[in-house]
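Risk register update: the risk that structure generation would not scale has been downgraded. Supporting records follow, first protein first.
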Amino acid sequence: MKASQIQQEYRSYLVLKNYRPLTIKAYSNTINRFLQFCIINKQGQKSAQDYAKSYLLKRFNHGNSWSTVNMDYSALIILFRHILKLEWSYDFVPRPRALKKLPQVLSVKQIEKMINGINNLKHKSIVLLLYSTGIRSSELVNLDIADICLDRSQLHVRLGKGGRDRIVQIPTITLEFIKAYLWKYNPKQFLFEGQTKHTRYSASSIRNIIVRALHKQGSQLKVNPHALRHSYATHHIMNGTDLISLQKQMGHNNIKTTISYIHLCPSVVQQIKHPIEKMEINKPLTKLSVTS
């Protein structure tokens, strides 16, 4: 097949499999880059997986993170198995192991100072909604006005990660800002519109708001919007929110993902009360007690 035909077949497969638009875009871009790599580096009778291995190594050596290379890996497997009908050897091209990095978490005080330091009502509403609901920035930019239920203080997140819908509770203070924002800006369809009417707000603009807000408070941290989600989960656990409720709020498919935030909560560890402390256990004999 020609490169253009492969690209078309690949995209059609992802659409029919109901992959999310952002995933389709990311995977399709990977395949486009890979095909260009194959054309530029065409040498002898190299096997298809030789090209795949060389491409993944090139991506990593050029500074891409292992998580990015892992996404490329997933995209290539679909290409080989379902489009080109070729075998994929995990021994020849092993999948990158996930790195266990601790997520970036801001303190309660940092969040408070950041929010209070934002003067623009729209920007403050965006940051408040991100932190107080724990939704992803990709979920926020896809919100329509109809997704906000003011009467029930709820937010309907449609087709979140994994293609799942969920209902998220909105705290009273955030709801007050959202009402004020709606009254002042009067958006027509999307909850947060871009600079041009009837366009969605961009994820890069959200990131800029957060960075500027932190810099205004004297912090030089390079924080992305996901840090607010991590902070939301960590602060909820520290505040006593049960894990099942938190899992539903955050849209985690596996409770293990929610549990992982406990490691970021030193106060939770300090609150562990071992039952053995209430037992009357005979103390061990010491050298001093034997002598006496």
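Supporting record for the second protein:
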Amino acid sequence: MTRKITILDLKKMKDEGEKITMITAYDFCFAKIFSDAGIDIILVGDSAANVVCGMDSTLPITMDEMIFLSRAVARAKPDALIVGDMPFMSYHTSVDEAVANAGRFIKEGFAETVKLEGGQNVKEKIMAMTDMDIPVMGHIGLTPQSVHKMGGYKVQGKDDVSRKKLLNDAKAVEEAGAFAVVLEAVPSDLAKEITESIDIPTIGIGAGIDCDGQVLVMHDILGLTFGKRPKFVKEYVNLKETIENTVKEFIDEVHDEKFPTDKHIYS
């Protein structure tokens, strides 16, 4: 029997040089599979807007929808740490609303921690959440909820000004009390510098090998996405093709009256 992962375990893993693994999940089934496989962190990601709901960005998904997904994941009782991804406008208007919505993730969604995007601009909100004993994971670099401001999904920190900003963002997140920070679409040398300059774990996605851990969206890993994939994605298996062929076989057997057979029929 494995032991439940906590934020203290993640800090210990960084200190001891043990890599951290994180994957998204949005339901009971995959949360159970991923936890049984030994994943450290399950992120109930706002990427559900794209990969589950078919939306063009993460912006439209709501708190109620995210809580519904988080509850489904939590029912798997994973050994992995559950992180609830705070959706757009759930923490943007005021500190009080940010804390209240983070609390909803814990109380209603049964998440154990929350994640929010931003650096220096959300420092006060991270501090307020952690003051209320809500563990927070930060997220800097390419922050998809800021896609319109950034002018698209682009690598961040490529010039001196933005590089310095990201370094300051990482330190601000740490100072605010976050237990870890996601670095998305950041040059690998900058990710390495950030990882070495802060004491909390860094989780990379398109940020190179020197981060303390790595995260990917489950649909990308499993080959269940449609359209162009980002450069940093590795497809480990093509389940889309396997599933399609399986369903075609079912259709053919029904048409040809090969299913159900006697062993599938009650007498």
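The domain at 7-236 is CATH 3.20.20.60 (TIM Barrel). On this basis the risk owner (M.S.) recommends closing the item.
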